């Protein structure tokens, strides 16, 4: 209940068209020259002091990418991206990798403070809050990773992927690209060539990660693309919960964020991956904003493993994203819980894929799309059962809520069962916030914006419950803020 | 408390005139019944009083506690103390009834510059009123009106009325869909809210409800106007003879 109240207050306080995280920070940077070539790839690899095999891996991806074409099947529309007008690497001067907190430029620490991201371990330890280890990625580099030592005691490796490439090359060589191969798709291949930073997590056999892990991505520099790469491995019987958050300054031009996230769960392992995506969505005219073209995939490689994706998507001008699960291990389970909110001129084409390969595998999809303003919101989902996937089970629930009459909601399910014992269920609804509902709330003294916030929070409740507690409250606020100004 | 003066109003979309020169005065402490055949404008009147969008007032005024309220939106009127018990209460999935009540109460208090009620005080307040209406607290944890029976919905409306403590209560066909036991409970609830500084307008099709909520005045609404007013005996007369005589007299 207090959360709803806070939401309402928050919505009141903000002007229409106000993105809270849109501030810009001036920091001296080290940038790659604009444009994309083998030299760009070499530049990035060199800045990150990578071993030669990594450079070769990147170059191989780059050469493949040159032969590929941008996919056009998604229900989104945007001007062609000029890949030569982008800087592929930007790092605050003097930082080529994470440092201790004391060494980080106070200006950068200030950015995270403004964003409300806790980086001081002591503060967290002293407070009553849950402890969360954070990897802070600023443009192309990780600037700090907290609680590293403490996690190490438990055997958990949590560091930037750039460091991991140098320090844990055996794990990287075994797992990187094993879920999303370099040839996977246009944007994943581009990412493989020029990926900048992201997080690496390895949880050893039987270990339950002692705290929440999270990575916070911030795009700061103008005309810069961010190419996040994250790899999480839960070894046999291990478990981990991970959260990612993202913001960017308000800018008139569009910026590209093309991420690849790979998850690997071995026998009996469990990974819970939550995203609160709040990239700058563009202004009320549809100018500016982030292009969010993301490939996220989890491989339930071991028997009885479980991967769960939860996403709250409120930002970005264009989103193209399908966090998926490959249910390879027998009795493995995949889950996808999504809230996708679009307002203004935002376009979202998002959903999931549940690929059932093993026996007795199960999956569950709960997707809640909310479209307002002039936005378009598409759920695209695939559920398939391989010939060997005896007793595969899926339940899909896909609900759309429309606010106003100039937005669109679309559902595009693909269902494919090659095994006759598979049981797939799909339920879909589309509804509008009705005038009756609004009038009813108004009549009880609840003003219009608070009424919309209340009705929407009711609509997404099942999914919010899947988020770690402290983020559920944050997500609820975020949803209300994104919808503010959507009625009337 | 309420003075409707020569009111004319139409549906904004198609211009159909529904209220055609309606005059009505309801004093503080009074229970006024508005009766009339189907299509006479009863529900429209309740929407215009509560400020629902989609209706246009073309002439006349609605004066509440000495000032016109026509410029206020529905939420502002609610804060001023106007409450409408709906004929068909609306479902809001995923929002627990208790949560809805708390938000409504907080919003109204905030708009009046009062302190928000603490959660324990709120729960205590709800428990008391709910018990009087025979409402189980479990029901209030369910999403608002979702899967409620007809009786539960109407009791939930009266519970909201009790909690929000309005000055002017408009009950729109509160008896529809209720069996006799539920009707008694709802009527008891309304009666317990009668007070010298509160007015109640009961809109109903049948006299039955008025056996339990006994009105001070009865008004017959026909084609958007009050064509006859009287005391409670008028309701009995209507029950016995139907509307035809009254309509013929007025013509």
Write up what this structure looks like:
- The complex is a heterodimer of chains A (488) and B (251).
- Chain A is of the alpha/beta class.
- Chain A contains 13 helices and 23 strands.
- Chain A has helices at residues 2-13, 38-47, 52-66, 106-115, 121-126, 148-153, 161-167, 169-175, 186-194, 435-443, 448-459, 461-464, 469-483; strands at 29-31, 90-92, 132-138, 141-145, 157-160, 199-203, 212-218, 229-234, 239-247, 254-257, 260-265, 270-277, 289-300, 306-313, 318-321, 324-327, 333-342, 347-356, 362-371, 376-385, 393-402, 408-417, 423-432.
- In chain A, strands 5, 6, 8, 10, 11, 13, 15, 16, 18, 20 and 22 form an eleven-stranded mixed β-sheet that branches.
- In chain A, a hairpin with a 2-residue loop joins strand 3 (132-138) and strand 4 (141-145).
- The two termini of chain A are 26 Å apart.
- Chain B is of the alpha/beta class and 251 residues long.
- In chain B, the strands form three sheets. In chain B, strands 6-9-10-3-11-12 form a six-stranded mixed β-sheet, with helices on both faces. A four-stranded antiparallel β-sheet of chain B has the order 2-1-4-5.
- In chain B, helix 6 runs parallel beside helix 7 (180-192).
- The interface between A and B is medium-sized, with 28 and 35 residues.
């Amino acid at each position: 209940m207090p959360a709803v109240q806070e939401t309402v207050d928050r919505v009141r306080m903000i002007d229409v068209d106000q993105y809270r995280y849109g501030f810009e920070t001036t920091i001296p940077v080290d940038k790659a020259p604009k444009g994309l070539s083998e030299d760009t790839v070499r530049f990035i690899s060199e800045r990150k002091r990578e071993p030669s095999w990594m450079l070769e891996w990147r170059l191989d991806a780059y050469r493949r990418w040159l032969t590929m074409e941008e996919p056009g099947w998604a229900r989104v529309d945007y001007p062609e991206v000029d890949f030569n007008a982008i800087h592929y690497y930007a790092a605050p001067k003097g930082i080529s990798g994470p440092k201790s907190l004391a060494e980080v430029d106070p200006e950068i620490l200030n950015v995270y403070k403004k964003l409300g991201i806790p980086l001081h371990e002591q503060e967290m330890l002293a407070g009553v809050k849950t402890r969360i280890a954070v990897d802070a990625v600023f443009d192309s580099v990780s600037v700090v990773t907290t609680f590293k030592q403490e996690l190490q005691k438990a055997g958990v490796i949590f560091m930037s992927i750039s460091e991991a490439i140098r320090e844990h090359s055996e794990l990287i060589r075994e797992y990187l690209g094993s879920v999303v191969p370099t040839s996977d798709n246009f944007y994943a291949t581009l990412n493989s060539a020029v990926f900048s930073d992201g997080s690496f997590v390895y949880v050893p056999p039987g270990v339950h990660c002692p705290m929440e892990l999270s990575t916070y991505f911030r795009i700061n520099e103008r005309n810069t693309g961010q190419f996040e790469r994250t790899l999480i491995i839960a070894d046999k019987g291990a478990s981990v919960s991970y959260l990612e958050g993202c913001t960017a300054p308000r800018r008139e031009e569009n910026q590209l964020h093309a991420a690849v996230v790979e998850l690997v769960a071995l026998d009996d392992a469990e990974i819970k991956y939550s995203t609160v995506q709040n990239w700058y969505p563009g202004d009320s005219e549809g100018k500016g904003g982030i292009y969010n073209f993301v490939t996220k995939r989890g491989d339930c490689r071991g028997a009885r493993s479980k991967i769960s994706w939860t996403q709250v998507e409120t930002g970005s001008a264009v989103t193209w994203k399908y966090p998926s699960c490959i249910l390879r291990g027998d009795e493995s389970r995949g889950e996808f819980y999504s809230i996708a909110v679009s307002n203004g001129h935002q376009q979202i084409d998002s959903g999931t894929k549940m690929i059932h390969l093993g026996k007795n595998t199960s999956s569950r999809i709960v997707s809640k799309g909310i479209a307002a303003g002039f936005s378009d919101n598409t759920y695209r989902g695939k559920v398939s059962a391989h010939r060997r996937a005896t007793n595969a089970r899926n339940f899909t629930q896909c609900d759309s809520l429309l606010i106003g009459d100039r937005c669109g909601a679309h559902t595009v399910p693909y269902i494919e069962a090659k095994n006759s014992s598979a049981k797939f269920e799909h339920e879909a609804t589309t509804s509008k916030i009705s005038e009756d509902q609004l009038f009813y709330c108004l009549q009880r003294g609840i003003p219009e914006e608070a009424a919309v916030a209340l009705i929407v929070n009711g609509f997404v409740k099942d999914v919010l419950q899947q988020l770690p507690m402290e983020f559920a409250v944050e997500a609820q606020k975020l949803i209300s803020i994104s919808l503010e100004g959507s009625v009337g | 408390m309420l003075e409707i003066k020569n009111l004319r109003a139409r549906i904004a979309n198609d211009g159909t005139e529904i209220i055609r020169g309606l005059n009505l005065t309801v004093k503080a402490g009074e229970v006024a019944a508005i009766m009339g055949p189907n299509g006479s404008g009863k529900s429209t009147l309740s929407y215009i009083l509560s400020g629902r969008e989609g209706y246009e007032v073309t002439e006349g005024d609605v004066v509440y506690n000495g000032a016109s309220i026509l410029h206020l939106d529905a939420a502002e009127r609610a804060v001023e103390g106007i409450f409408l018990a709906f004929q068909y209460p609306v479902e809001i999935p995923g929002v627990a009834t208790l949560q809805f009540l708390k938000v409504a109460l907080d919003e109204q208090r905030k708009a009046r510059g009062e302190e928000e009620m603490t959660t324990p005080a709120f729960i205590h307040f709800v428990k008391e009123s709910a018990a009087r209406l025979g409402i189980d607290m479990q029901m209030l944890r369910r999403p608002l009106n979702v899967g409620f029976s007809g009786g539960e919905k109407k009791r939930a409306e009266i519970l909201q009325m009790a909690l929000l403590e309005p000055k002017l209560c408009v009950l729109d066909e509160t008896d529809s869909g209720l069996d006799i036991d539920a009707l008694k409970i709802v009527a008891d609830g309304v009666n317990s809210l009668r007070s010298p500084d509160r007015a109640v307008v009961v809109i109903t099709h049948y006299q039955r409800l008025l056996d339990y909520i006994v009105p001070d005045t009865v008004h017959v609404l026909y084609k958007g106007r009050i064509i006859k007013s009287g005391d409670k005996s008028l309701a009995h007369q209507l029950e016995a003879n139907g509307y035809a005589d009254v309509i013929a007299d007025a013509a």
